[in-house]
Amino acid sequence: YTSERGGIRIEQAKSQIIEGNMVIGIGSGSTVVHVAKSIAETIKNVKCQAVKDGKPCDLNVVCIPSSFQARQLIIENNLTLGSLDNYPEVDWTIDGADEVDEKNHIIKGGGGCLTQEKILASCSKDFYIAGDYTKYSKKLGTVWKRGIPIEVIPISYVAIKNKIEKQFGGEAVLRMAVKKAGPVVTDNNNFILDWKFPECSCDWETLETVFKMMPGIVEVGLFLKMATKIYIGTAEGDVKVYC
Ligand code: DER
User: Fold this and answer.
1) What is the DSSP letter of 156?
2) Which end of the chain is more exposed for a tag (fewer CB within 10 A), N or C?
3) How many whole angstroms from 217 Cα to the centroid of ligand 1?
4) Given the DSSP bridges, would you call strands 90-95 and 124-132 parallel, antiparallel or unpaired?
5) Residue nearest atom 5 in ligand 1 by C-alpha distance
6) DSSP string of 76-93?
């Protein structure tokens, strides 16, 4: 897939699957739209072989969604739809990112799907990120200016907003919908606060832990050192691999 801002090649998944199933997690956002298409084309064009009881067998690829959007992508690309209920162990997941820094700190949640994305990533043996060069930075916050997405239980959003702003500064803004009156409602029926943090040399690990301990916070859009590999498409159409 080559976007107008850079190229991303999807590395062929090379893995020996004994059970005859390869379980792939599908992330959310616009980059993954192209990734899902590429996966579907690869499966269609490349006869995927597995080994079962020592004998070659057809590789059955099952895709697990990280959101309603990802579920639609899987169906639209005629990929086999699974769920964590029946495939709780995922071989690898591929997803986009809002910003990636050089320490494998990632901001996600621009598309509002952070909670199920992080659950899926945590159930995956490998977690791959794909994005273009506009997503890569030396210091988190220099690229993504809309704040750290924080999914909250609706009744708590004002209390959490006040706590975060009082304790950590900055501004936690309720994410409002564009084509619907009122706030964005996530796939989990929650709200999102986008925390525009002050200039800081934040200890992201500590911050994530403190936020996750706050009653009412469901998930934080910080994916810290979770990525196995990060594929960044350059303006020249090459791919740089980090991690
Ligand atoms: O909401 C999300 O976490 C998305 O994966 C986002 O981080 C990337 O979206 P994009 O591929 O549309 O830039």
Assistant:
1) G
2) C
3) 20
4) parallel
5) 96
6) HTTPEE--TTT--SEEEE
Rounded-to-integer distance, Cα 22 and Cα 64, Å? 11
Give the distance (Å) from ligand 1 centre to CA of residue 95: 7
Q: Which atom of ligand 1 is nearest to the CA of 31?
A: 11
Q: Are 96 and 130 in contact (CB under 8 A)?
A: yes
Local confidence pLDDT in tens for the 243 residues of the chain: 333 333 344 444 444 444 567 899 999 999 999 999 998 988 877 766 676 777 777 778 999 999 999 999 999 999 999 999 999 999 999 999 999 999 999 999 999 999 999 999 999 999 999 999 999 999 999 999 999 999 999 999 999 999 999 999 999 999 999 999 999 999 999 999 999 999 877 799 999 999 999 999 999 999 999 999 999 999 999 999 988
Tokens of 24: 């792939």
The pTM for the full model equals 0.90
Task: Tell whether ligand 1 has an atom less than 6 A from the beta carbon of residue 151.
Answer: no
Ligand 1 contact, 111 CB (< 6 A): yes
SS3 (DSSP) at 117:
helix
Question: What contacts 145, CB < 8 A, 6 or more positions away?
Answer: 196
Ligand 1 in reach of 27 Cβ (< 6 A): yes
| 205 is annotated as an active-site residue | no
Ligand 1 centroid to residue 129 C-alpha, Å: 10
